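Incident log, structure service

09:12 report received: a user says their structure output differs between two submissions of the same chain.
09:20 pulled the input from the user's history:
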Amino acid sequence: MCLQISFIQHLAMALRFSKWEDAPMAITCYTDVGGGLSEIVLSPATLVSSAKKWVEFDKEWNRCLTAFNVTALHMKDFAHSKREFESWRWNEPKRRRFLSGLMSIIEAYVEYTAAVAVYTDDYGKVDTQYRLSESMRPFTMGCLGCSSRIKLWSNSTGVDWNDFIWLYEKGDQDQNDLRLHWDIAYPDSDNEPIFKWKKDKHLSDECKRIRPFEAADLLGYENLHAYRLMERKQGEQVFEDLRKPMQRMFGMIGADKWGYFSEKEMLSACERWGIPRR
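09:34 re-ran on a clean worker, output below:
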């Protein structure tokens, strides 16, 4: 399905991207979410890079998919060997090579990463004490947790915050809540979240796959998988149980700042944000 955008919005985006071609430090952020309200965590992951690097990223990502005779990466399909990956179920060497190739592309072209996991059961517990669900939804909490880390990174690197564009995969629950809180979190910002399907109009009039969403899906899903393992192992070391290419994930730029909201962090946030008690 292609999202229709107004001529004025399209023109504004085109002008902005045109300017970025002459400004290598201009930044585009793509976010996809692993998990959901029925999972142990909801885990948005954001990948950040310059417009020029995203162009090269697209070329390399497409080459890798073509080499493996795949049209797109959907992590749920890959993880469960469904649809295009059905014949891969018992071919672990091929699966490793595929993920390793994609990870190498992310490492080469992505300038910064952010991921924040929101524990869904803990959110429900805190919501019985504070009016949390009326104030901020888990999707918003996780996404703003990512953007706040990127804000700190932009401050340290000297990138103008108003040169950022924020793209979110369309379709996740509570995206309107993020729109509302974005203006509260960044009242002086010229940018705002833009929601797109994984296959959508992007920089041209044609509908095509937005490949960085697939990379964000990869990181978000693997982050979710790590939290699943932690729950299963009750806090034991899980690093060695992650898929080998995914162990590289924690060496990416920004990974040392990835975080989570558990009950403790949410209670502290409610006090800090002035969320009323029930």
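09:41 both user submissions now match this output. Likely a transient worker issue. Closing.
09:42 reviewer note: The domain at 7-273 is CATH 3.30.420.10 (Nucleotidyltransferase; domain 5). The radius of gyration is 19 Å.
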